[in-house]
Amino acid sequence: MIEKVDFQFEGGPHGVLLIHGLTGTPAEMRLLGKGLHRAGFTVHGMQLAGHCGDDNDLLATDWKDWYASVQAAADALEQRCSRVFVAGLSMGALLALLLAADRPNRVHGVGVLGATFRYDGWSIPRLGRLSFLLPLLKRLGIGRHRSFMEQPPYGLRDERIRATVSAAMLGGDSAAAGLPGNPWHALADMYTLAARTRRRLPDVVAPCFIAHATEDDVASLKSNARLVERRVSGPVEMLPLDDSYHMITIDRQRRLLHARLGAFFARHAGSEPLPLASVA
Fold it and tell me: What gap in Å lies between CA 165 and CA 159, rounded to an integer?
């Protein structure tokens, strides 16, 4: 059963839509949402279709459903805010970029956080690096009940946070920490989404703030963040993070990320950010 765990923080006239990653949860965006709210923004940490339940809930959806839920959340935020920004983590970054490509006059800035077009980080096993073949397997009906299980360090350099998140994830609390594995067919849809978003990158004219761990264990900076930097048409600001792994919104350098992204959005909203209060 899917638990509703999205969050809303009412703030100023400018809104930020936050999008979590594949098999993830809005909880991975909550600290960032609090930081942006303290900087004066209205924030919605949305919940992707099919997420925060079990494997069957996720497999009942595909990338089009995930994107439709992003579009609906953006529409709702536009009703309350004069300008809308969007930021996503991992696969959420791809959905954010696709929304910006489709809505060049309605998305005023994009936070591209740990973008994942390819699973080629240092912790990904050799078999996992062949996951780009999964769309073919899905079309052939192969592997519906197979998953790639998450492996240490679970995207987290901070050992204390890693212990907390892994305990919740492996304990079955998908609403708090996401699923412990990536179903093959869901990954197949992620790769289909990645291919579509890659083709649309030149259509992204909104300013892009790209943050990525230099030692990302899931998705390398070179194949993912640099791809976005090269291909989008809008202005780019890059923040490499040298003391974090993939889950940069909650890892060791989260406060730096929150402050820099808030300042970036504030500049493009035509306002100065409020001082950021300390966020855990």
Answer: 10
